[in-house]
Specification:
Radius of gyration: 28 Å
Shape: globular
Strand content: 25-35%
Helix content: 25-40%
């Protein structure tokens, strides 16, 4: 459960508050799966010595009554925050029968499929028992071994350098901190299932602590994590941020917003509430008792990561000024909250329980991320935050993105998912030729599945029903699913085999949009943004200007540039003796004759080379989804059921 802890004020008071009220601290009970079952919100104001003593006693009792065997307590301090360090004091009690205890740090964080080596930011790790120092040796990149010398209670202290302002790591400075657990908490090996407490020694200048963990008491905030999975999955924000409380489906939600930005709090909360309500309506029940949206406002940064009962966003501080950018932000919100079901609970069997030491491979990220990407836009349409025209335009842009990626002929969706660890997060200049985005193509397969199921059931069922079925299965078994399980759920809802759609998952076959869109009275139209572009010379490379040099940054496979032997990083000098420089370079390149050879001079590593290149007509650069007039009665009915708006 997320909480907003505020700096104690005088006089002391503990006030029980109903769900959905603002500026409260949450005291919650966790279920056996480690997530909230029932919340009680508390607000604390203190200052009198007696109540201060009571809070200290409460903290001590909580620390002493934690699980006796393997009791784990983290205390976070920020004396060196100006240098971007977090000091972590880790106490482990109840150890017995061991010569040593290993401590490990995760190398990745769930939801972001790249080994990030968080241990590189750990410094000054020491161990002791009372006043006696214990030997601590690093045995591999993310493991430290402490000799116990028959001690049952030990203390480990280390510092974490936290100066990476993104949604996967942690950041601290004098103004505040944003912590993501995998990058902060070293855990005792073999005790991943043990409960732990987190004590925050926050600076006096920081008024608030907001966490996705339940607050359990203390003058300094004390939080409880049911196990290491929950600890890693629960961000903590500290500082003087803004908290906006609101309620959706009778459940408490809140924004915790740090940084300055030109946002309208009422509009942001209202629109977010509409989106979340649409998500709840799909599944028929709410998977959490409390939800926190951590929102950091920065200069030109973007990123987001889902958690079980929270999500973390980093966006530009001016993301609210233009409607298109604001809709993009709302789409990200829809995406991450939808993950509370798809990904965090309804998940591939290979994504849990996690192995934090190495890659966790799955061929199903096209469902986890791609299908969530389909819904993030559809939810805005259902909430009337996007017009039909805006929504269809976004779908057309996704189709164009896929069709502009030569890698669609090389990599299947299953392969893209499996290789996420080495390809998706590490793109290079050749990535478009060899890989696809499981976000983009996955969202398009979701579109095709949704429309195909609706067409075959005359609009009675769709992809919503697949997820409702998967959700009910999860609530019963709490297990992950396989490719075959997901395929069976789709076939069951459709009442027939969906081979014609699933071929787009297992092969590189081109997607047939006519058969998908026509039952809904829609068709895909290809053309050019500017009528004269059809006569423009096309080469298949992309360029950028660096220090008055025009350099090739990308070459698509099977294009004139690839066939001519050009290379990324070549500097374009001239074509047919015309100098290529500045604003006129694009005009000169575009004016060459199609299907007629041209002499192109480039600078490659300081040596001038001449290549013969034969431009071709350009591919279409504009795709749109338009309505067929007049529609049949069935097309009109299917269109209305899908987009939830009459055909007009």
């Amino acid at each position: 459960m997320g909480i907003a802890f505020r700096k104690p004020m005088s006089p002391p008071l503990v006030e029980t508050r109903p769900q959905g009220t603002s500026h409260g601290r949450d005291h919650s009970r966790r279920g056996k799966d480690g997530y909230v079952n029932s919340p009680t919100l508390l607000r604390t104001q203190s200052g009198m010595p007696l109540m201060g003593l009571l809070y200290r006693i409460l903290s001590l009792v909580l620390l002493m009554t934690a699980t006796v065997f393997g009791r784990i307590t983290y205390t976070l301090s920020f004396e060196d925050r100006a240098e971007h360090y977090i000091t972590v004091d880790l106490e482990v009690d109840g150890l017995r029968g061991k010569d040593y205890q290993d401590f490990r740090m995760a190398v990745w964080t769930p939801g972001s499929y790249l080994v990030r080596e968080f241990s590189r930011n750990v410094v000054d790790l020491t161990a002791r028992s009372g006043i006696r120092e214990l030997p601590a040796t690093k045995v591999n990149k993310n493991t430290w071994r402490v000799d116990l010398n028959r001690q049952r209670r030990i203390f480990v202290r280390y510092k974490v350098y936290a100066f990476q302002p993104d949604h996967r790591s942690s950041f601290v400075n004098e103004d505040g901190a944003m912590l993501n657990g995998a990058s902060v908490f070293i855990f005792p090996d073999g005790m991943e299932s043990q409960e732990s407490l987190v004590v925050i020694n926050k600076p006096r200048s920081w008024d608030q602590v907001t966490s996705a963990l339940p607050w359990v008491g203390g003058r300094s905030p004390v939080f409880r994590a049911a196990n290491y999975d929950v600890l890693v999955d629960s961000p903590i924000m500290m500082g003087n941020h803004t908290v906006l409380d609101f309620e959706v489906s009778g459940v408490s939600h809140r924004y915790a917003i740090s940084g300055e930005g030109d946002y309208d709090p009422d509009r942001l909360v209202t629109d977010t509430g509409k989106i979340i309500r649409e998500i709840h309506d799909i599944f028929g029940s709410v998977p959490y008792d409390d939800y926190t949206l951590f929102l950091q406002l920065w200069d030109e940064r973007t990123g987001a990561l889902e958690h079980s009962n929270s999500s973390h966003f980093i966006v530009s501080r001016d993301a609210f000024q233009k409607e298109q950018r604001y809709h993009r932000l709302l789409g990200i919100v829809a995406h991450e909250v939808f993950h509370a079901y798809n990904g965090k609970r309804i998940r591939p069997e290979s994504l849990g329980p996690f192995d934090y030491d190495r890659e966790n491979y799955t061929t199903l990220l096209w469902v986890v991320e791609g299908f969530t990407s389909y819904y993030d836009r559809l939810l805005l349409r259902r909430a009337d935050l996007l017009t039909v025209e805006e929504y269809l335009d976004q779908l057309a842009r996704s189709i164009k993105e896929l069709e502009s990626t030569p890698g669609r002929h090389q990599q299947t969706l299953q392969q893209a998912s499996f290789d996420a660890w080495i390809k998706h997060y590490r793109p290079d200049e050749n990535s478009p030729n060899t890989a696809i985005s499981y976000y983009t193509k996955g969202s398009l397969v979701a579109l095709a599945l949704d429309l195909t199921i609706r067409a075959f059931t005359d609009g009675e069922r769709g992809l919503d029903d697949v997820f409702r079925l998967m959700w009910q299965d999860y609530l019963v078994a709490r297990n992950g699913y396989s490719h075959e399980d997901f395929r069976a759920a789709c076939d069951s809802v459709a009442g027939r085999s969906l081979d014609d759609v699933f071929q787009y998952v297992t092969t590189t076959a081109e997607m047939d949009w006519q058969s998908v869109l026509e039952p809904f009275g829609l068709m895909l139209v290809r053309g050019y943004m500017n009528p004269g572009d059809s006569t423009r010379a096309y080469y298949g490379f992309r360029t950028c200007e660096e220090d008055e040099q025009l350099k090739i940054t990308r070459i698509d496979s099977n294009t004139p540039a690839a066939r001519a032997g050009l290379s990324v990083h070549d500097e374009l000098i001239s074509i047919d003796n015309y100098r290529l420089l500045g604003a006129v370079a694009e005009q000169i390149l575009a004016s060459r004759s199609q299907d007629k050879a041209a002499a192109l001079v480039v600078n490659r590593n300081g040596i001038m080379r001449t290549f013969t290149i034969r431009p071709t007509p350009p591919p279409y650069d504009m795709l749109s989804i338009v309505r067929m007039e007049p529609p049949t009665e069935q097309q009109e009915r299917l269109y209305t059921g899908w987009l939830q708006i009459p055909w007009e």
